[in-house]
Structures are given as structure tokens and as C-alpha cells.
Design a protein that fits this description.
f41 fragment of flagellin, N-terminal domain, 7 strands, Heat Shock Protein 90, 11% strand, Helix Hairpins, five-stranded mixed β-sheet, rod-shaped
Length: 457
């Protein structure tokens, strides 16, 4: 789960709980308001019924016709008002009986001077008493129901508050475990790495974003560690490769010691030839190092000119044609001119490196092919061999500086700069270099350059 989706889910959960709580409180408030109104109406109905009872009793006991008329008007007004608070069911039936008994009593009371003995008076009181009891029962039930809902509201409030608390606590715990803790672990790994612990790596834990950051840091740390390993390997390779020519030069110098008699001419020529080859070997190593330094500093200079690409290939072929008795160099060139705008010395350096690698990595000998093709607006140089080849897992890294195949670096000289320098030279010509290889069956390297470069890099 990503950090954004986790926080979003937590926010949605908390918001949902808050919405449920708000809806519940609104519903409960509305219900309690209705219950309060019902209780108030019941109480008002009871008050009016009791007032009517008092007025009816006063009406029955008074002898004044005027006073009776005022009381009758007041009783009828209260009956009418009480009808506004009466609901359906038993309460409505009781009210209608009370109103009917009241009308009968008032009509008969007009005909007698003393109305206390009228049976309708007793019926009226019984009806009003029944109505009051019904209203009291309704009020008690409404109060009890309101109390229950009040308890329910308290329970809901406490439950929602608890759930919100749990949700917030869970969210904070989630943020700590899945966000802050991984960040602190990444920070710890970075600090340890900066302090010199090159094995320090960040754990891949937490949300997707933090795992991605940790993965990128680990990849960077691996790359730095690998680069450091390659640098040590480079130094070891330099020491190893310099030891051989220096040892050879030292032995040759002993043969030419000034206090010793010079060897025969043929032996002397052999020694001088050995010295020349070893010096050329050291010079080539130095040139590779200097070129790598210039490239990294952005100071590689190219001098473009129009040339026949076949001339570059022939010069390299002639240089290596007799360099090894175990290898057969083959040359394939088109019959017509192949015009190319390039720095011929730098392109010759690239081909020298490729042919040298083809010879070195074919220790058992075999065929090395140099070919040139003219394809539309591109010129393609190809060098192929039938040597050791390159393992598939190492192909993506062969152009890295100081990178050499783990399978052969102990038995074949070199510091791992040739292909890196070659690629940078080719790219400076706006071209590309491609290597295809089958482990144990040889390698093919193609260099493709545009025929004309509009703007030299």
C-alpha cells in the first residue's frame, strides 16, 4: 500500500465515523424534539382537562345565571383548545366522549337550578378522568421512551468517540510504523553509509514511495560500492599489467648492461624488439588512462575531416596483420569509396581497441574479421571473432570504466578502459556502438557513424 492510499483510507474511515455520528445525533435530536413536543402537548391536555373539571364543578354549584354563562363559555373554549392537543386512538375516543357528556350536561344544566345531581355531571367527570389517565399514560411512555433514546444517544456518542479515538490511534500507529519508522531507517542507513559503512543498506519496508526511495538508495550504494571495487581492481590491474612489461624491460636491460659484453646482433635485435613492444604496451595503457581522464573532464578534442573510411580500416588491418601467428585477420571492404566525416585518428583508436580485444579474447587463435559497410547515410564498422565471448549477465556492463569480465580478468591483461573510451569517442561522433556475443563462441562489435555530422560535438 502506498503512503497516499493509506492516509486516504484512514481519513475516509475517520470521516465516515464522524458522518455516522453526525447523522445519528441529528436523528436523535429530531426524535427527542418530537418527544418533547408530545410530552408538552400531553401536559397541556392534562392541565386543560383539570381546569375544565374545576370549571364544571364551579358551574354546577353556582346559582348565578350570568356566572354560569361565563363558565359555560370558558368550558367550551377550553374543550376546543384541548381538542388541538388530542391525537388519534383511545385519546381521541375519550375526548369525544368527554365532549359529548359535557354538551349534554351543559344543555340539561340550563333547565335545573341545581345541576350537581345531574347524571351527566358524573359522566363528564368520569370521561375527563379517563382522558387525564390516558394522557398521563402517554406522558409516562413518552418520558420512558425519551429516556431510552437518551441512553442510546449516550451509548452511540461514547461508541463513536471510542471508535474515533481508536481510529486516530491506529492512524498514528500506522503512520509511525509505515512512514516515520522507514524514514528513520533510511536516514540511519544514509548516515552509516556517509560515516564509512559501505555495507549499510536501507530496509525495503513501509509504503510504496518509501520502498522506492530505499531501493534507489540501495542501488546507489551498490553502484558506489561496485565502483569502489572496480577502482581497487583497476589499481590491482595497473600494478599487475605494469609489472610484466617492467620486468621484461628490467631483464632486457640486464642483457645490455654496460659492464657486460653485448650479445650477438640477432639476439640484440630480439631484445630491442621486446623493449619496443613493452614500451608500446605501457604507452597504450597511459594513453587509455589519459583519454579516460580527458573524457570525464569533458576535454576530448575531435578534429573532423572528410576521409575514405576504407583507409582507416586498412591502416588498422596492416597494423595487426602480422601481430599474431595464431590469428588470421580477414578484411572485407566495399569496392567504391566510403566517404565519412570524422576524426580519423580517434576512429583508428577505436578500431585498434576492438581488434586488440578480439585478439586478446581469442587466446586459442582463430579468425578475426574486419568489415566495412555503407548503409544509406551511415557507415558501419564491424569487428568479429570466434573467441571466448562474453557472458550474458555481463553484457550490460562492458562499457563501464574499469569493468572487465570476471571470467577472464585474471588471465588476460588490461585495465578495462578501452571499451569505455571507444564508446565515448563513438558517441562524440553522434554514432553508436553495439556488442553481441555468445559465451564460448565469439563476439561481434558494430560501430555505426553518420556519414556527415552537421555539428561536431
Amino acid at each position: 500500500m502506498s503512503l497516499r492510499s493509506g492516509i486516504s483510507a484512514a481519513m475516509v474511515t475517520i470521516a465516515s465515523l464522524a458522518l455516522v455520528a453526525a447523522i445519528s445525533l441529528v436523528q436523535l435530536t429530531s426524535y427527542l424534539r418530537r418527544t418533547t413536543a408530545e410530552v408538552a402537548a400531553t401536559h397541556e391536555s392534562i392541565r386543560l382537562a383539570q381546569k375544565i373539571e374545576v370549571d364544571v364543578l364551579t358551574h354546577a354549584r353556582t346559582d348565578s345565571a350570568r356566572r354560569r354563562g361565563d363558565l359555560e363559555s370558558q368550558i367550551r373554549s377550553n374543550i376546543k383548545e384541548m381538542g388541538e392537543y388530542v391525537e388519534g386512538g383511545l385519546e381521541r375516543e375519550a375526548f369525544e366522549r368527554a365532549a359529548e357528556n359535557m354538551n349534554q350536561y351543559l344543555e340539561h344544566a340550563k333547565q335545573v337550578p341545581n345541576a350537581e345531581d345531574l347524571p351527566e355531571l358524573e359522566d363528564t367527570f368520569q370521561s375527563l378522568t379517563e382522558l387525564v389517565e390516558i394522557n398521563i399514560g402517554q406522558a409516562e411512555r413518552s418520558d420512558a421512551q425519551a429516556a431510552r433514546w437518551d441512553d442510546i444517544a449516550d451509548t452511540i456518542g461514547v461508541a463513536v468517540a471510542a471508535l474515533l479515538g481508536i481510529g486516530i490511534a491506529t492512524t498514528l500507529a500506522w503512520v509511525w510504523i509505515f512512514a516515520f519508522k522507514p524514514v528513520l531507517e533510511i536516514r540511519r542507513a544514509m548516515k552509516e553509509f556517509a560515516d564509512g559503512n559501505r555495507r549499510s543498506r536501507a530496509p525495503l519496508q513501509g509504503p510504496e514511495e518509501l520502498r522506492s526511495i530505499a531501493m534507489q538508495f540501495n542501488e546507489m550504494a551498490d553502484a558506489i560500492a561496485k565502483q569502489r571495487e572496480n577502482q581497487f581492481a583497476f589499481l590491482a590491474g595497473i600494478a599487475h599489467d605494469l609489472r610484466n612489461p617492467i620486468s621484461t624491460l628490467n631483464m632486457s636491460a640486464r642483457l645490455l648492461a654496460p659492464d657486460e659484453q653485448l650479445p650477438p646482433e640477432d639476439r640484440l635485435r630480439t631484445v630491442l624488439s621486446i623493449i619496443e613492444r613493452q614500451i608500446s604496451r605501457v604507452n597504450r595503457m597511459i594513453d587509455d588512462l589519459l583519454d579516460a581522464t580527458r573524457i570525464e573532464a569533458g576535454q576530448l578534442e575531435l578534429r573532423f575531416e572528410k576521409v575514405d573510411a576504407r583507409t582507416i580500416v586498412r591502416d588498422v588491418f596492416e597494423l595487426f596483420e602480422t601481430s599474431s601467428s595464431k590469428h588470421q585477420l580477414w578484411l572485407e571492404l566495399p569496392p567504391e569509396d566510403v566517404p565519412l566525416q570524422c576524426d580519423p585518428l580517434r576512429m583508428e583508436q577505436v578500431l585498434n581497441n576492438l581488434v586488440s580485444n578480439a585478439v586478446k579474447y581469442s587466446p586459442a587463435g582463430g579468425r578475426v574479421l574486419m568489415a566495412l559497410e555503407h548503409k544509406r547515410d551511415a557507415v558501419v564498422f564491424r569487428v568479429s571473432d570466434s573467441g571466448l565471448g562474453i557472458p550474458n549477465e555481463e553484457l550490460p556492463y562492458i562499457f563501464e570504466p574499469f569493468r572487465r569480465s570476471n571470467s577472464y580478468k585474471n588471465g588476460i591483461s588490461g585495465v578495462g578502459l578501452g571499451l569505455s573510451v571507444a564508446r565515448r569517442i563513438v558517441e562524440a561522433h553522434h554514432g553508436r556502438i553495439h556488442v553481441s556475443s555468445t559465451h564460448g563462441h565469439g563476439t561481434v562489435v558494430e560501430v555505426s557513424l553518420p556519414e556527415t555530422i552537421k555539428k561536431a560535438a
